[in-house]
Write a structure and sequence with these properties.
With 390 residues, the chain is an alpha+beta fold. The longest helix is centred in the middle third of the chain and has 35 residues. The protein is globular. The chain has a four-stranded antiparallel β-sheet, with helices on one face. A three-stranded mixed β-sheet has the order 1-4-5. It has a two-stranded antiparallel ribbon with strand order 8-9. Helix 1 runs parallel beside helix 3, helix 6 packs antiparallel against helix 7 and helix 8 crosses helix 10. The structure holds flavin-adenine dinucleotide. The site of flavin-adenine dinucleotide (FAD) has 20 residues, from strand 1, strand 3, helix 9 and helix 10.
């Protein structure tokens, strides 16, 4: 019997279809050529210098809204979308965030809850990467509990007038279109706010120590007047944004598996090459123990992602499955990144190696789209039938 491949120890590749493998390989090759050579510099600069070019490239690759049907979207299965997220996050969590926010949050909101005119107007351009979207739910005083949002939309004749502030919004200041969630007399509703609308402004959030190759912004809405057609007609109540978040969290389940893989692979290479005490550090028992722990986490994460992906493709993924995956895989990736960082010694704190970049990125990934606490509560509710959120 052959020794298992360290890069696919449990031979999970065999469980993918030919088409899924082809999509994975295409995204991997694109990432290696077009993103990986630049991403450490973007991280150091604390921005994506040319987000339109990145959007266009990802649009041409076909990953923006790739799991959606029609309107220029590829309409792939959930596993293929997950595999793309895994490849993108193996490069940097910021790039996977870009794709998640565009495809799973902004485009999904429009696809699922928008009018036919809204879909026709925005989705083909967003799929092609010609228009960038963002998704404004979180506020300075409303994070894990989005139902407490203060942003208000009130009727004025047939128009809507929005006031409020959204915080921590990925791609906010470069977005052509913001999906903004606001409280109305009839509950929470979603609105499409085009860039340039009077009263609408954005501020880039600086001094981030995590997800630096990503643009994060504040959205300010001061008496923003929108026509009646700006509202997403199908989105009623908090369950609408939460359903989009579930889609994005699904991508994180896979993405975190990618960040973990990248850290493990870097550590394995480094341990084989780095000589101390006259031997590669890979030859020491303590190093091998750490590599074994990483191997287990990386493969568990992949199996978890694939299982949830298959359930999703069968229409059987419950939101608590997604919570399971987000909690398990982000935590696994954090463990792997921390071990890998240590194994790289001093080199591990630089951008010459990906490990510390992944390690600090994962702090954001652990926080957004529901913290570990929130997903633990979601699992607790699924197990006991008793919600313990408040
Ligand atoms: P809080 O909700 O204040 O939580 C603080 C702590 O309290 C956490 O540890 C949390 O687990 C804990 N806690 C909260 N409630 C409970 C409870 N019931 N029981 C036990 N513990 C609890 N938002 C968007 O809308 N759009 C975006 O594009 C977006 N992009 C982001 C990008 C980045 C880089 C980051 C960091 C965040 C982004 N967010 C975005 C916001 C993100 O979704 C929120 O930060 C997240 O929901 C957590 O909210 P909070 O930061 O207000 O923390």
């Amino acid at each position: 019997m052959k020794t298992p491949d360290p890069h696919d120890f449990l031979a999970v590749d065999r469980d993918l279809t030919e088409e899924e493998r082809a999509i994975r390989d295409t995204v991997r090759a694109y990432g290696a050529a077009e993103l990986l050579p630049y991403v450490a510099d973007w991280f150091e600069a604390g921005t994506i210098p040319d987000p339109r070019a990145v959007a266009k490239g990802l649009g041409s690759l076909g990953v923006l809204g790739m799991h959606l049907d029609g309107y220029g979207c590829a309409g792939t299965n959930a596993v293929s979308y997950g595999l793309a997220c895994r490849e993108l996050e193996a490069i940097d969590s910021g790039l996977r965030s870009f794709v998640s926010v565009q495809g799973s949050l902004a485009m999904t909101a429009i696809h699922r809850y928008g009018s036919e005119e809204q879909r026709q107007e925005w989705l083909p351009r967003m799929a092609a990467g010609d228009a960038i979207g963002c998704f404004g739910l979180t506020e300075p005083d409303s994070g894990s509990d989005p139902g407490s949002m203060r942003t208000r939309a009130r009727r004025d004749g047939s128009d809507w007038v929005l006031d409020g502030t959204k915080m921590w919004i990925t791609n906010g200041s470069v977005a052509d279109i913001a999906v903004v969630w606001a409280a109305t007399e009839d509950g929470i509703r979603g609105f499409l706010v085009p860039q340039g609308t009077p009263g609408y402004s954005t501020n880039v959030i600086h001094k981030k120590l995590s997800l630096r190759a990503s643009i994060t912004s504040e959205l300010v809405l001061e008496g923003v007047r929108l026509p009646a057609e700006a509202m997403l007609p199908g989105a009623e109540g908090l369950k609408a944004p939460l359903s989009c978040l579930s889609e994005a969290r699904y991508g994180i389940v896979w993405g975190a598996a990618g960040a973990a893989r990248a850290c493990y692979e870097s550590a394995l290479d480094y341990a084989r090459d780095r000589i101390q005490f006259g031997r590669p550090i890979a030859a020491f028992q303590l190093t091998q123990r750490k590599l074994a722990d990483m191997l287990v986490d990386v493969n568990h994460a992949m199996l978890t992602a694939l299982r949830i992906g298959r359930l999703k493709d069968e229409g059987l993924a419950h939101h608590s499955h997604i919570s399971f995956g987000k909690l398990a895989n982000v935590r696994a990736a954090q463990r792997v990144a921390a071990l890998a960082r240590g194994m790289h010694g001093a080199n591990g704190i630089t951008l010459e190696y990906p490990v510390m970049r992944h390690m600090v990125n994962l702090e954001s990934v652990a926080t957004y789209e529901g913290t570990e606490d929130v997903h633990a509560l979601s699992l607790g509710q699924a197990l006991t039938g008793t919600p313990a959120f408040r």
